[in-house]
Amino acid sequence: MGSAVARDEVVPARSGVWGSIRRRCRRAALSERLTMILSFDDALDGPLEWRDEISGLAAEIERSDLLEIGTVEASGELRAVDGGFLLDGSLEYDQSLACARCLEPALERIVETFEVFLVRRAPRIGDGAQRGDGSDRNPDHEEYDDELELEADDLSVVAVQGDEVDTRDFVVEQVVLNLPTRALCRKDCAGLCPTCGADRNRVACGCEPAGDPRWGALAALRAPSEH
Fold it and tell me: Which secondary structure element, helix H or strand E, spans residue 17, and what is its range?
């Protein structure tokens, strides 16, 4: 009986310990996942490192020839500089698009870096009235108004409303910018035969090259003079 009581007393204690460990692990995992959400105020105290892994981006991008985008592994740093903040990052992932000539997958490994200058947009008049005491207003925002006006035409400058920046937005933007206008499986791709549709990279279909119809009118004009 004594040993049974001892076990009964130990079980709740062990459950409490493991429950605490599980909660800490969940919080750590959540904190790790949220490293793409960065606070400007924290960056004023020192550079902030961030990292993220994004999957399934192909479904979010409207591009008919886009076949697949692999998991995007991204990391970088946000640091305070004169007049604002500098966000830099590096990306690494695979992408696949349909070849513009033969429609076969054109695979490419992307390794890219980017750098963006961020300024905090001052809150609009009335934003601080949400709590009725003006506590939502941050005086640090005000100093960037003139800077924002001066740099309005600079595409490297991004004005951010609020006290945080989501690095995911910039990662997705870079992925879209890295998509080629026309993808080719290889530079010398022979494409599809316009007559039978065969892939001329794989087979010689034997079809005669079709004449360019744009020259038909010129040929008709020249024909009488040849007689």
Answer: helix 2-33
